[in-house]
Amino acid sequence: MTKRSTPGLLDTSIAWQAAKDAVGKLAPRKLVRNPVMFTTGVVAVLVTAIFFRDFATGRDGLAFTGQIAVWLWFTVLFANFAEAVAEGRGKAQADALRRTRSDTTAKLLLHSDDTKDDPWEPRSAQDLRPDDVVLVEAGDTIPADGEVIEGIASVNESAITGESAPVIRESGGDRSAVTGGTVVLSDWLKVRVTAAPGSSFLDRMIALVEGAERQKTPNELALSILLSGLTLILLIAVVTIWPLAGYSGTTLSVTVLVALLVTLIPTTIGGLLSAIGIAGMDRLIRFNVLATSGRAVEAAGDVDTLLLDKTGTITYGNRLATAFIPVPGRSERDVAEAALLASLSDETPEGRSIVALARGSYGLTDGIEATSTNVIPFSAQTRISGVEFAGRSIRKGAVDAALAFAGQTLETTSPAFREAVQSIARTGGTPLAVVGDKQVVGVIHLKDVVKPGIKARFAALREMGIRTVMVTGDNPVTAAAIASEAGVDDYIAEATPQDKLAYIKAEQAKGRLIAMCGDGTNDAPALAQADVGVAMQTGTQAAREAGNMVDLDSDPTKLIEITEIGKQLLMTRGSLTTFSIANDVAKYFAIIPALFVTTYPELGVLNVMGLASPDSAILSAVIFNALIIIALIPLALKGIGYRPASADVLLRRNLLVYGLGGLVVPFIGIKIVDLAVSALGLA
Amino acid sequence: MTAVGWLQIALVLGAVLLAAWPLGNYMARIFSSERVSPVEGALFSAAGVDPRSEQTWLVYVMSMLAFNAVGFLVLYGLMRLQGSLPLNPQGFGAVAPDLAFNTAISFVTNTNWQSYGGETTMSHLVQMAGLTVQNFVSAATGIALAVAVTRAFSRSASKSIGNFWVDLTRATLYVLIPLAVVVALAYAVMGVPQTLAGRIDVTTLEGAKQAIALGPVASQEAIKQLGTNGGGFFNANAAHPFENPSAWSNALSIWSMLLIPAAMTFTFGRMIGDRRQGYALLAVMAAFVIAGTAIVYASETAGNPLLVAAGVDASAGNMEGKDIRFGQALTALYVVTTTGLSCGAVNAMHASLTPIGGLVPLFMMQLGEILPGGVGSGLYGMIVMALLAVFVAGLMVGRTPEYLGKKIEAREMKLAMLALLILPFFILGFTAAAAMLPVALASLANAGPHGLTEILYAYSSAAGNNGSAFAGLNANTPWFNTTLALAMLFGRFAYVVPVMAIAGSMVAKPKTTASAGTFPTDGLLFVSLLAAVILILGGLQYFPALALGPIVEHVLMNAGKTF
């Protein structure tokens, strides 16, 4: 898997652009999308107006009002900056993508016959319409998304995937989709265009990484409602202080009430909320996964059942030799030797694995002269391979075929041999017989080898409450054996696409959320039905449209990472919300005594931080409130630290760090700012 | 504080737990039952209700509002016409319009704020056919609503949440009436009067003539506590020796007001099929009650340094406004439960508590009357807080927040925030307005922070549907009667409508299966989290107001400053 290059968190060029964008985002039209920051902006205008009024009338406390105004503006700017940085990181990628799209000239076929020599005329890619058929030859850039209707070619898709190794595209089957902007390296293709200009895969990808189509995701929306509600409640609390203070004989200035309001409303999470969302999408893109919507990323965090294809995800995908079992009277080494000789000419992955095992575990060398041998290669018809040399005749292959070659049947073999064959089959493996000179030498145990570490991974997922379900075309016996070896929770054996669909529907009816990946057209219904459907980039157009994510690396294992990224996104949001709200406690202790200390000096006992003066206390709280946004930008972009664990453990840890931390940090932070403020004589 | 005092507190709370467990299970059974008893059947067919047809949240809430509107009109009419109606041995005239409005709202909303003195204003007919009836049905309304909300979480992808008429009838018939009969008899045994006589005229030891008011006290007392109503027969409420003659009746009072709200948590756990969920909510409620009691108990036994300096015997702590027959421990428990409960009966004058001792009941009300809150209303209020806690912290486990298998999304959040806005809006809004208006300030008995506390307490009590008074504030003025009535009205119904809308949207959602990745809402961790959310949210709203009221009063008291 190739990862896209990761710009530094605060890459200078991005930061500079973001600083400029932050000012642009002050436009009320943009600010109003974020109620918390909009409120902050409104009161910043208010305090600025008060500053100019006081300036004109020459009132006292000008420096204090001025500083509060400045820091209120900074609060808004810092929040805008956070969003701009998050967007900036995507924009850099979008620009790179956009360059690949520019001015391709297509060879539009006037009518389509069987050969590639049909007449064509040049046509700008921008003018292609769905159902046009174009010819793409070696060296050409594919002008638009489409379906290969004829031909076979190797295509460099690195513009999209970042992977430089070419992939094969051919008509029919599951590898017929091509993407505009990719380059044909050899041979030719006839492609039927499927996407109108501006709505191609590349266009969607650019829009996604740029965040141009960004809408609030469902959870983000719910959270901003909570934050708006809190803002309203705190507005009531702060506005009513004025008459209550008046009753008590204190006349409070608008400036200090504004300061209290802004420090209390959840500016920290309010300022970072959209940055967190953009960064979550961005993390997914860095993993070479494109989600068609932010909603899908959130859904990934909620998934509690993963449907994983056995081949390529859980196992290496090929059966590999794992043991040589001799019949009585022969040694393991004899079997290994015979198997090695018989497999030298077998270029199938199974054959190569036999050679590798014999050489690796038994230190055998080939030991024969290639010239003097008569090689019998493996074929699907004979199902055996072997070698004839120096009068010896060695074969290995499917048990019945090899025995037939040796003129035997299963009944005529030794009980030990039969036992070995049966036990291998029982555990889901494949036995191969090795015969030499019409004698049975032994058995090779071929099996689907489970990837190392996958079992631990599934255990971690289980701890997170995520079930793994293996989908395989194997028979139930084999499936059960591999399922137990890999440690999956369930399996679907002899699975057809219909089985997958039915399984997903049944699980969803039980209230579960399912993620799966697939590439074939017949996977499309299941991909659409799943809550998170990840289509492989190498898959068909139908599959890519049915899913809500596309994996550019076509790596089905990534389903696990996708889930983790979704969870991390939600956790970051929750942690910063908790942090933001917990912060308020300290701010009250800073500001409330400062507000009333003139009327009730005794309330000084609430000044637990021992802040220098009322003005300094209020100013310090406002400054801290602004600076904490900047301080948390890296966390918002990177996401909070995450390792798989049960909800209980995650909650305990995050509550401790962000809940308790959120209570304590501002007490220390405000005190430090206060020391600086009073040392500098700012208030 | 003494060990004996704590033992008394523990015994009462233990007795509540012992009785609440079977009662909760019993309630779960009757509200889930498909069977219609003959008595119910007769009532339903007389009223034209089909007990088998269930209602959507909207129909449910409209039925509830219609029922309460009629209840309000009847009660208002009774008070306005009491002069020409029977059962009026003391010959009281019509109740003034603003007072009748206030009182009718007060009893319909289960608040029982009393701007009037019972024995000097209301005829027996009003007390029995008006106020006591509302004591039953306003409590039954609360239970019905809580049961409906519970159903929203126990069902998966459904439309209906029960039938209001059935729930109301069952709550009255099978829960409130039987319990009230038993408790009323117990009160009568303990010496609480139960008679239709108006008063007796006695000659005192000094030879003076005195009229001692009597009436059907025991029966009203029972439902007043069981239904967390709190409206006393007498003006002095449960501090009056006829309402609360002994330490035993005092313990019975606390027990009976805690009984149903505590039992509702068991009902909840049982109906949703996960008892631990109910225990968690009960644990949060209990934690606040015990902590609050400890603070009041400690603060009251420590006494008032100013009085000590003035030469008052401090050995019993601050005894101003308290009755010696109840003692400090059970007075503290009473103070905290009656305010944590939205009951509002008082056995001591809350205005005479020490500043910190007075802050606790005030804050208990401001926390939303969910600790454990009124019958029913406490449970659904607590569920709203649980939704909020789960939403804020639930994201931290990396999943869309869900409570009891139901996802919390934008719609529920919008409705929850709407409900949560009601209390601060009316409490702080009206307090702020009153603090500026001379017409309101004229009602204060005290200057300085204590006066502010009086106002704050009145609106907190009204909006929270508690009904207890801080004393010292003359609330029987057009300004207070009207604004307090509005606070009560919105505090009850403007809160309930969004909560029921949440129930409507929850019941429609499919219930997801719990797994190791599900946010756990039944352990100690969640209990602490929920408690912290309640405390921080409450503190954020009311800390400035409290700082100017009881908190500053406390520091001034320690500094020796008075007003």
Summarize the model shown.
Chain A is an alpha+beta fold and 683 residues long.
Which SSEs are present, and which pair or pack?
The complex is a heterodimer of chains A (683) and B (563).
Chain A: H1 12-24, H2 28-31, H3 35-57, H4 62-101, E1 105-109, E2 120-124, E3 133-137, E4 146-156, H5 158-161, E5 167-170, E6 177-178, E7 183-193, H6 201-210, H7 218-239, H8 241-247, H9 254-264, H10 267-286, E8 289-291, H11 294-302, E9 305-309, H12 310-314, E10 315-326, H13 332-343, H14 349-362, E11 373-376, E12 384-389, E13 392-398, H15 399-405, H16 415-426, E14 430-436, E15 439-450, H17 454-463, E16 467-471, H18 476-486, E17 490-492, H19 497-509, E18 514-518, H20 524-529, E19 532-536, H21 541-546, E20 549-551, H22 558-596, H23 614-638, H24 647-679
Parallel strand pairs in A: 9-16, 9-18, 16-17, 18-19, 19-20
Antiparallel strand pairs in A: 1-2, 1-3, 3-7, 4-5, 4-6, 4-7, 8-20, 10-15, 11-12, 12-13, 13-14, 14-15
Helix pairs in contact in A: 1-4, 3-4, 3-9, 4-6, 4-10, 4-23, 7-9, 9-22, 9-23, 10-22, 10-23, 11-22, 13-14, 22-23, 22-24, 23-24
Chain B: H1 3-32, H2 38-47, H3 57-80, H4 97-108, H5 118-121, H6 124-154, H7 164-189, E1 199-203, E2 209-213, H8 217-226, H9 247-271, H10 275-302, H11 305-309, H12 327-340, H13 355-366, H14 377-394, E3 402-403, E4 406-407, H15 410-436, H16 438-441, H17 448-463, H18 478-508, H19 524-558
Antiparallel strand pairs in B: 1-2, 3-4
Structure description:
The complex is a heterodimer of chains A (683) and B (563). In chain A, helix 10 runs antiparallel to helix 22, helix 22 (558-596) runs antiparallel to helix 23 and helix 22 packs across helix 24. Chain A is elongated. By secondary structure, chain A is an alpha+beta fold. In chain A, the strands form 3 sheets. In chain A, strands 1, 2, 3, 4, 5, 6 and 7 form a 7-stranded antiparallel sheet that branches. In chain A, strands 8-20-19-18-9-16-17 form a 7-stranded mixed sheet, with helices on both faces. A 6-stranded antiparallel sheet of chain A has the order 10-15-14-13-12-11, sandwiched between helices. Chain B is an all-alpha fold and 563 residues long. Chain B has a domain at 3-270. In chain B, 64% of the residues lie in helices and 2% in strands. The radius of gyration of chain B is 23 Å and the shape is globular. At the A-B interface, helix 7, helix 8, helix 11, helix 22 and helix 24 of A face helix 14, helix 15 and helix 19 of B.
